[in-house]
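Appendix B. Extra example for self-study. Work through it before the problem class; the solution is given directly after the inputs so you can check yourself.
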Amino acid sequence: MGTTLDAAALRRRIRAGEHNGNTSGLAPGYVQCNLVILSGRYAADFLRFCQLNPKPCPLLAVGEPGDPTLPALGEIDLRTDLPGYRVYEHGVLTGQHGDISALWQDDMVGFALGCSFSFEEALLAAGLEVRNVTRGVNVPMYRSNIACAPAGAFVGDMVVSMRPFRPADAIRAIQVCTRFPAVHGAPIHFGDPGAIGIGDLAAPDYGDAVDIGADEVPLFWACGVTPQVALEAARPPLAITHSPGCMLVTDLRNAQLAVL
Amino acid sequence: MGTTLDAAALRRRIRAGEHNGNTSGLAPGYVQCNLVILSGRYAADFLRFCQLNPKPCPLLAVGEPGDPTLPALGEIDLRTDLPGYRVYEHGVLTGQHGDISALWQDDMVGFALGCSFSFEEALLAAGLEVRNVTRGVNVPMYRSNIACAPAGAFVGDMVVSMRPFRPADAIRAIQVCTRFPAVHGAPIHFGDPGAIGIGDLAAPDYGDAVDIGADEVPLFWACGVTPQVALEAARPPLAITHSPGCMLVTDLRNAQLAVL
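Solution. Structure tokens for the complete assembly:
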């Protein structure tokens, strides 16, 4: 398949089982989301966690309990429209699925969270180089020592992603990302990794290391892996998320997320 | 006199010879400008220089040749409304005056350029600490190795001002100043001073050194001393500027300069 399908057409192919790989780079221009599905008080606590920690957990849509649709983001069925899902029981990964229709429960709530794909597109459109894109690898991510505000059982430190820039480009990157608070927004730190508890940039906790030029500084963004870490800490009896790289593709355009 | 006079009232006192000191901190909320007055082809070249180098030379108003008023900025007479002027002949300072009525020529053009007072007010309003304000000293300024685009005889490297911040505050400072392109806008560099040709932050070329915390990074802004340096290089037969700290106080409010 090509990369020129629009979001709805791509979702139809995924729903029909005709596409089951990564969504990265597909349906360019459209917002892709991290997905978390929870039930009962865990859903209520997670909603509060997201509202308390909007930079790592920017909520784009929340479903009604038991309703697998998210009409604000398109004609979506959360049970079938992602190419891959992960199932966690008591915080432990216990399965991977291409369809979760059999697992859906009548009090489940779907949470769609903004993802860095959207602001990376804006950075590239601004003529900036995004190192992980250039190198064709996953962005390096690190557990920081910045504590998230806790909500119920959801606790943890913020996970951050890192992209290196020369200072003048870093200033431009801050300006570009400031326009997109719904997808992590401006960086939360730059420079000394130790200042936010990161020991070694060459050894990311998630993703792949990237090279950093002598004239570059690392910029750190709040990362959507943060809710994943909080989820593992909360140990809900059952939770479902997207598989890494297998995102919820929405009808929303990245450009629509710009606040100005 | 108090600091609660509005801009027009302060200008009237200056015009009447009742105030002849610095304008810093007076008429808070109102835009204060750097002033350059030139004649003939030097005026034409300087206008081009400003348009080529908007970050160090943000033009807020240009007068008609021979006309000492700047109606866009208020009921202003450039010959009398600044507390202090400097006169340069062939690029060399030859005099200081409290009034330049006797020096005004019928082809003189007045240029009003934005000044850092405006964005410092915005930074303070955002709850950020501006070190030179806290310490009660002039901001430290340095000759960088960033070449300005030349126009006629006007050439030179950019002069930059420096204010230190912790990284998270630096990101906020970039956001705040981005709203004010008419008063130098976002910083042009941060971090390593050597990357822009600055040898020793403790030895500024103009102004006063300030302390920088171990957890802080220096942010560098394009500075309104840049046109002064270009003026000295151009060596026009006659040029008049404000005296340092004795600015043109306008009826424009700093908040009006925000582009969003």
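Self-check: The two ends of chain A are 34 Å apart (CA to CA). If your reasoning did not lead you there, revisit section 3.
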